[in-house]
Amino acid sequence: MVSLPTTLNTRVIGSRDIAWLSAGFLLACVPHLLRMPVWISLLTIAVAGGRLLQLRMRGKSVPKWLLILIAVSASAGILLQYRTLFGRDAGVALLVVMLALKLLETRTQRDGMLLGFLCCFLLVTNFLHSQTIPTAAYMLGCAWLLIACLINMQYTGPWPGWRPSVRRAGILIVQGVPLMLVLFLLFPRIQGPLWGLPQDAYAGLSGLSDNMSPGSLNSLILSDAIAFRASFNGNIPEPKDLYWRGPVLWDYDGRTWTAPRIVQSTNDLPDIKPQIEYTVTLEPHNKRWLFALEFPGMKPPRSIATLDMQLLSFTPVRSRVRYEMVSSIGVAYGADDDQSMLSRNLRLPPETNPRTSAYADELRKKFPDDRNLVGEVLARFRNENFVYTLSPPLLGEHPVDEFLFETRRGFCEHYASAFTVLMRAAGIPARVVTGYLGGEINPVGEYILVRQADAHAWVEVWLKNTGWVRVDPTAAVSPARVERGIASALPRSDVLPMFVRGDFALLQRMRLTLDSVTYTWNQWVLGYTPDRQRRFLSYIGFSEATWQTLAFILMVCAGVAILIGAGFALRDLRGVREDAVKKIYDKFCRKLTRHGLQRDVAEGPLDFARRAGQRLPDFAAAIQEITALYIALRYGGDAKAASMQIFRQRADKFSVK
Amino acid sequence: MPAQINAVADQINSVILGKSQQIRLAIACLLARGHLLIEDIPGVGKTTLAHAIATSLGLKFQRIQFTSDLLPADILGVSVYNRDSGIFEFHPGPVFTNVVLADEVNRATPRAQSALLEAMEENQVTTEGETRPLPRPFFVIATQNPSHQIGTFPLPESQLDRFLMRIELGYPDAEAERALLNGVDRRDLLGRLQPRLDAEGLAEVQRQVQQVHAAPALLDYLQALINYTRQTPHFEHGLSPRAALAMLHGARAWAYMDDRSHIVPEDLQTVLPAIVAHRLSPAGDIGGASRSELVARLLQQVAIP
Predict the structure, then answer these.
(1) Which of A34, A100, A343, A494 sits most deeply, having the most CB atoms within 10 A of its CB?
(2) Which residues of A touch B (CB under 8 A)?
(3) Is the ipTM here above 0.90?
(4) Does pTM surpass 0.95?
(5) Predicted confidence (pLDDT) at residue A6 exceeds the cutoff of 50
(6) In a domain, A191, yes or no
């Protein structure tokens, strides 16, 4: 028999409960504490620590005015810090501080329960920052503790120790798994800002940008952050073909290459067999580019393709996207580009790099044919003493001149930039293409992992009757960069992120396995998009399901679950299994209920019969008789005193007309 | 036999006017072999009621007026040296009787109280190393003033628990009071009361009360009531197993007086306030309900299975 208290009560909870709550709260906000400004983290820890200290020393409680003062000044501080109280960071900071203060004034069970539930909410906000497996695992642990904590607060008698609560919390979590799966699969997913993260969630995402100046790629090379992963249907192409095309840079001001603001879109994508089919899972980078192997043969959904073969998403990529792609490798495009466009790709700032211009004129005279000229320059890069390094000397006013004729030490962006300038000076339309080259093949998951460190810049030149052709001057200088990746191309003294060099075989293997698990998690858990949900639903027989249909299915499922649960709970509440006599009597009572005679749960049969008899005097005798039979059968000691048949018969026949 | 008990009740009703329910409860308490505590302000007829019960049941009756200087020996008795025989002779105290009326029990010191309460629990008295059994049946009817009155030593919970029932008499209604004012002196009436039963008869009735049937459904209800006090946070402590037994015996006696061979839930509900009110206290000090509110909540919230 379980009797539930009618209201959440004002019972004072013990110091043990407060200590558990404090621990749960602190654990739930540890990831936030590491991210928030120091003063907020310190304030939170100080307040929570103060509460624990107060418990230990049995100190006096904090006066109300002080609480209000701290709350107001902390809010003001957060407002000053973030310039707002809304949004992800400010909102979470406010929540953390206010919960810490709530901890300070928590005394009764009602407060404790509220705080416990709010901590669960705080826990969920961690997902606004990170959705990785370790985060999820950590949060599961915290949730376990918090649930145990909520259970703990329900004990009014002696405490049976922490084991029963922890075990029960574990059982509750396991029982929640089916519900979680139903919600995960069926909860309507609406594309768009409704479920999006607040705006400030995207600060600090790294990736390629729409311009390139000496040293800008350099910082990317030092990052081992993941740019995207790609899995191929079929064999993975050779490393030298893995040019992942990104921003195309047209305009040069003597130092910086910039992408044009607007480029015409096109539907004319190369459709040349053989094509490679693959799927890209792109990490958010807050820009619109979708990366594809050169040259893309289709557009992903919700994106456009431009004349210079960039794929642009309609909106900046702010969450992980997954798209299928086909590409034709080793082709040229845009043979019929018009003159105005080509002339833009010949433009150079006046009076820069005079030596380069002179050299270009000289080359032009020697090689009237464009192809030969390109070959000559590449040969020069290959044969003269050019060095591929991450730490090139700084360049001055005429960077290309200095690079080509003096320093001769540089990185892909230097080579791409110098080569393009040289081509333009010689009258060949050329532009810089940035993107990624290669990637690491993960044999565990059979996909390619591309890191920011794989960022690369190369060149494409326009040849008459052929169109735009890729030329990679870096390949001429350092073939290893193209064929074996960045780590083998650089001298060992150059600093690289730890995971890029494959020095430790075991470590490497572990890392690849781990990344493979993460990839699966991303694919199936985080990548469960509206699109995938639709496909899953049509698989189980609900084709063309709108989110309204989904909501309906979900409500039906939830309704059935609640009914079943309520049935169990009611049976538990009644405690005893009802016997046949009781059933007949209840049926008899229901007949009277229709005449406004509701038997109270705590009303005995004699009292009820008396009341009913007063209300319906004509039937008083019948009611008395049935009640007497019921009492004799249910409470009487003599089994032969009354007959079950007679009771059933009288009760069934009874009716008020 | 229930007819005889009803005759006892009727006779007492003619002395104490307008209190038939309390009188029936008091008789039920004795039929269930429990001790009775009557709590009320002075002058509402506590002592008269105790006297009337003892006389009507045909039992030997002794009265001890508890005062703050009462000693255990005044209750239990003393050994006095007899010069003729040259030995100590035990002179039994007033406790050696069938019905002891412990008047204003909370005016005595805890020491004197405990002497009586020990006799109640053990049905025997131990003085000077010798244990002497008390006569059968043995009842204590104690009266006490509400504890907030001046000069009282409230009985501790453990000792309150030994009383099967605690009843309050309360003021009589206007009609009963007018009859009282018009009638003859109550003391004269007491002297004229006739015993309607004797000790053997009472023992037989008590034996029959024990035979009253408690069905599983009824025990379910009893346990539901007990569990409610143990599981909901309104109560400082839940009811003890002794309280559960008291509820069962009380309900049996009530059912017997209603001339039934089995208990119905109403019997339990009727005797419940008198049996549990003095054993329950509200939890904490925040928004604490009074004891009678607690009992009312218990009766309303627990469904009859």
Answers:
(1) A100
(2) 1-3, 5, 9-12, 156-157, 574-576, 578-579, 582, 600-607, 631-632, 634-638
(3) no
(4) no
(5) no
(6) no
